[in-house]
Specification:
two-stranded antiparallel ribbon; mainly alpha; 148 residues
Length: 148
Amino acid sequence: MPVTPEELIRVLALLAEEEKLRVAVKETLKGGAMAGTGAVIGGFLGGPVGIAVGGFAGTMTARWYGKGKCREVSDIITQLDKEKRDELHREYLPILNDYEQENGTSLNHKLTMDGELRERMLTTLKLFLQNNLKETLLDSHLERGKAD
């Protein structure tokens, strides 16, 4: 029996955790509101120059506020609705068919042994997150370097 969408999600969640994959939390509206509020207050207090100074201060506040906010990819994919899970499974069918895995356990074992399969699985997951879910991946290699 081929790998089911639920088994695939479990395997991908483990892979994402091992690779420390994370996506940025979307804080665009809050950041824009902070920058705009800073510009308005600066304009009231300092005129034209105050607008520039207030806008800059608001922007820096927004940047500080949003710094480091991220979500784990494993959390995102385990919380997908059935439609998105099936869509993700369809993205992986060519890979799953190439490697003829019977279940999630055998796929997980194969991932530990086969670097090419691991890379294909990761690339497909990253493309799915970017293209289908419109998520912005954080560079996990840079983050790992900071932790070491």
